[in-house]
Specification:
Chain A: InterPro entries: 2Fe-2S_ferredoxin-like_sf, 2Fe-2S_ferredoxin-type, 2Fe2S_fd_BS, 4Fe4S_Fe_S_CS, Beta-grasp_dom_sf, Helical_ferredxn, SDH/FRD_Iron-Sulfur, Succ_DH/fum_Rdtase_Fe-S. Chain A: GO terms for molecular function: 2 iron, 2 sulfur cluster binding; 3 iron, 4 sulfur cluster binding; 4 iron, 4 sulfur cluster binding; electron transfer activity; metal ion binding; succinate dehydrogenase (quinone) activity. Chain A: Residues 58-132 form the 2Fe-2S ferredoxin-type domain. Chain A: It catalyses: a quinone + succinate = fumarate + a quinol. Chain A: Its cofactor is [2Fe-2S] cluster; [4Fe-4S] cluster; [3Fe-4S] cluster. The complex is a heterodimer of chains A (292) and B (180). With 292 residues, chain A is of the alpha+beta class. Chain A has two domains: 43-142, Ubiquitin-like (UB roll) (Roll), CATH 3.10.20.30; 144-272, Alpha-helical ferredoxin (Fumarate Reductase Iron-sulfur Protein, Chain B, domain 2). In chain A, 27% of the residues lie in helices and 12% in strands. Chain A has helices at residues 15-23, 76-86, 145-153, 175-179, 198-202, 209-221, 228-235, 249-253, 260-272; strands spanning 43-50, 61-68, 105-108, 111-114, 125-129, 136-138, 141-142. The longest helix of chain A has 13 residues, at 209-221. Chain A is elongated, with a radius of gyration of 22 Å. Chain B folds into two domains: 1-62, no CATH class; 71-78 and 86-179, Fumarate reductase/succinate dehydrogenase, transmembrane subunit (3 helical TM bundles of succinate and fumarate reductases, Up-down Bundle), CATH 1.20.1300.10. Chain B is mainly alpha-helical. Chain B contains seven helices and no strands. Classes of the chains: A alpha+beta (292), B mainly alpha (180).
Chain lengths: 292, 180
């Protein structure tokens, strides 16, 4: 469902133009799951992927758990916690329970999602697997080191040519320039999109994946960042960005409603030189003299 | 603290003899137990650089299932079909090229051979449709891909609608080619 957001209202001459930008909904669209009218039996079977870890010397298997979901909260994470009450050896990552930390990414009924913000689907059997094509540490916990290493390598911070006194003044950014970051800064690095991409499955070591590419674009398109040329040069490769074949599984998987597929298409145009990053609308160093 | 005071007291009068006696007996082991625990220092060695895959292979960690469990969605299915159609078309090109190179007769000979089979027009139409299907699909989806390269038409709604439109166009192209 596409909703438009009015972040704030203000009175000035370019009000309509800016409001239009802020009213722009996320490009990602999630079709609302159809809610059947007849009541579904709350007693469900949870088929959960289990693996005891490398020390246990056992093979991965799928265990069945019977759970009455009327005894637990609405979300899959609530069900997992209830299952952990039943079987304390079940292990999964979780932290914020509100879809902002990105810890609880799982594969539910074949698609990736965040367990804490995904309602238990109205099916009799619920399949829970770890996010695909990642090394499993234990049960639903996977090794995310490479995913974060790639993210760190793209220098996810502002780079300015003359790094003056940091923290002395704010870098000025117009409202339109800030609005360009909407749909980019909300990414929580849950890896739902990257692990949904078949190209990332086969080329995971050299292809950056939709999550990192979304962040690469976020730093390139930020008007306050001055290292655009170097950032684009680092991406000019056969593998880093161009292993994306517009499969678009990433956008379907994103639990925050972001649109990595669209962003990567824009990024590819920037890398190829077909598009140029526009200069900042207002002088970024505007507040340097006054200071505060 | 109390023990220390006892020691102090021991420097004077007869209580001191008592303290000295106790000190001589138990102070050695008691002092060691109450003192700082044994600390060994090791020189810091940064963790050795190891490739992600090599490290996980060494640890014998299994890979989480992917193709076997992931949902087939219209996006991925249309994409892999595009790739498969492309491979089939490459097969056609290779077959035609190699055939032209190594086969003894002219192409008209083989056309006559197929005509000689006396297949019904329906069978011929079906065969032509099957052969033209990869071309029709790859052509229509190729245009969709080129449209995506302009960074347009990438919202999920548009992906679905252009997807269905593309399937219709693919069928139309296939039927057109089969009718030739």
């Amino acid at each position: 469902m596409q909703r438009s957001f009015r972040l704030f209202s203000f009175i000035n001459s370019n009000r309509d133009k800016v409001c239009e930008i802020l009213n722009k909904p996320y490009s990602g669209h999630k079709a609302a799951p159809t809610v059947s009218k007849k009541p579904v039996d709350p007693r469900r079977i949870f088929k959960v992927y289990r693996f005891g870890g490398i020390a246990s010397k056992e093979k991965p298997q799928v265990m069945n758990y019977d759970l009455d979901i009327s005894t637990c909260g609405r979300m899959v994470l609530d069900a997992l916690i209830k299952l952990k009450d039943m079987d304390p050896t079940l292990v999964f990552r979780r932290s914020c329970r509100e879809g902002i930390c990105g810890s609880c990414a799982i594969n539910l009924q074949g698609s990736n999602c965040l367990a804490c913000i995904t309602a238990i689907p109205p099916d009799k059997t619920i399949n829970i697997y770890p996010i695909p094509h990642m090394y499993v540490i234990r049960d639903l916990v996977v090794d995310m080191t490479h995913f974060f290493e790639v993210y760190n390598n793209l220098r996810p911070y502002l780079v300015r040519r003359d790094a003056g006194p940091l923290g002395k003044f704010q870098y000025a950014q117009s409202i339109q320039d800030n609005a360009k970051l909407v749909g980019l800064y909300e990414c929580v690095l849950c890896a739902c999109c990257s692990t949904a991409c078949p190209s990332y499955w086969w080329n995971g070591r050299r292809f950056y994946g939709p999550a990192s590419l979304l962040h690469a674009y976020r730093w390139i398109v930020d008007s306050r960042d001055e290292d655009t040329e170097q950032r684009l040069f680092e991406l000019r490769d056969d593998f880093r960005a161009f292993r994306c074949h517009t499969i678009l599984n990433c956008t379907l998987a994103c639990p925050k409603g972001l649109h990595p597929g669209f962003v990567i298409a824009k990024l590819k145009r920037l890398i190829a030189g077909l598009d140029k990053k526009p200069p900042p609308e207002i002088d970024t160093m505007k507040f340097s003299s006054s200071g505060s | 603290m109390a023990f220390y005071c006892c020691g102090r007291l021991g420097n004077t009068s007869l209580l001191g003899n008592l303290a000295k006696f106790r000190t001589a007996l138990g102070s050695a082991t008691y002092a060691q137990a109450a003192a700082v625990p044994k600390i060994t220092f090791k020189k810091f060695e940064p963790p050795k650089e190891e490739h992600h895959d090599i490290r996980n292979e060494r640890l014998n960690r299994p890979l989480s299932p992917h193709l076997t469990i992931y949902k087939f969605q219209i996006t991925s299915v249309l994409s892999i079909t595009h790739r498969t159609a492309g491979i089939i078309l490459t097969g056609y090109a290779t077959a035609l090229g190699l055939g032209a190179l190594v086969l003894p007769h002219d192409i008209s000979h083989y056309v006559t051979m197929i005509e000689g089979l006396n297949l019904s027009p329906a069978t011929i139409f079906l065969a032509k449709a099957l052969i033209a299907a990869p071309f029709g699909y790859h052509f229509a989806n190729g245009i969709r891909h080129l449209y995506w390269d302009t960074a347009k038409g990438l919202t999920i709604k548009e992906v679905y609608s252009t997807g269905y439109a593309m399937l219709g166009a693919a069928v139309a192209i296939t039927l057109f080619l089969a009718a030739l």
